[in-house]
Amino acid sequence: MRVEIEILGSGTSSGIPTIGCDCPVCRSHNPRNKRLRASVLFRVSQPGLPGQPAAETRLLVDVTPDVRIQALRAGFSSVQGVLITHTHADHCHGLDDLRGLYWGGGREPIDLWGYPESIASLKRTFEYIFDLEYDYKGVARLEPHEFDQAAFVVAGVTVTPIQVVHGKMRVAGFRVGDAAYITDCNEVPPASIEKLRGVKLLVLDALRRAPHPTHMSLPAALKVAQQIGVQKVFFTHINHDLEHEAVSAELPPWAGLGYDMLRAAVEENGSITVKEPAPRPNPPVVSW
Ligand SMILES: [Zn+2]
Ligand SMILES: [Zn+2]
Ligand SMILES: [Zn+2]
Q: Which ligand has an atom closest to residue 236 CA?
């Protein structure tokens, strides 16, 4: 099995540039300092039948307010499942835009996985989407499913939830094979570190340099990655304190600042490959 994590957005809740901010990172022309809201796409390839290409299963993690542009620029129009880390606005308030992926997927209901409290919260916030009697055709059909501690299977792919602490709430990280994504946490408890043993590739929350009550700082995140013993970690959910080139130059070779459109994979043979986005000749002002 080959598991790729594509970073759809590497930014904190406000996105970078942040509205109204004229700090050097928000004004930077470097595309790696332009960060949409935090989300990844797992692209999982299982070996196909002899002579046939491996089929790709796409699992979208979170549905940010930027999901439309994230799907367009990453070039996917359907997914086989959506995994919810938690229901803060920067992670879920693009839920209505799943209709694009619903249409792209041939109007098959999309499986939506979350903690029970996350599913309950989405049903309250987006009551009309889950109301099968709702008299408007332009709504995605979502099939909600709950998980807690145990692994679950989405479209033939086993997903292990990793519980982490985000202030007073819990957030789900996700492990698929030897790759894992953990956003929005100030602590990864020991039991979750154990569930992450053997992970080679990790994408992990690191908001800024200084400590924060609900997110990990860069030094704290480096420590967690070391505890797990990963081969490669990329940090995400980054705010405008962290200038891409300056921080990248400080990090050890096994760690990097994540950035939008980065694709990193654990290959069938266990090696890690990284694919950088193709340079664009005329990058627009805000994004890519
Ligand atoms: Zn967040
Ligand atoms: Zn700024
Ligand atoms: Zn959050």
A: 1
Residue 26 has pLDDT above 80, yes or no: yes
Beta bridge mates, 217? 208
Residue among 34, 21, 40, 38 at smallest CA distance from 244? 34
Q: How far is CA 231 from CA 32, 110, 255, in A?
A: 22, 33, 8
Q: What are the CA-CA distances from residue 210 to residues 168, 221, 254 (Å)?
A: 20, 11, 21
How far, in Å, CA of 220 to CA of 93, rounded? 28
- Give the residue extent of every domain in the chain: 2-275
Threshold 0.85, pTM exceeds = yes
- Whose tokens are 């805000």? That residue is 286
Ligand nearest to the CA of 14: 1
Kindly identify the ligand whose nearest atom is closest to the C-alpha of 87.
Answer: 3
Q: What kind of architecture, by CATH, is found in domain 2-275?
A: 4-Layer Sandwich (3.60)
Question: Where is 60: in which H helix or E strand?
Answer: strand 55-61
For residue 19, give every residue at least 6 positions away whose Cβ sits within 8 Å of its Cβ, in sequence order, or none.
none
Q: Give pLDDT tens digits for 107-140.
A: 999 999 999 999 999 999 999 999 988 888 899 9
What does R_g of the chain's alpha carbons equal in angstroms?
18
Per-residue model confidence as pLDDT tens digits over 180-196:
999 999 999 999 999 99
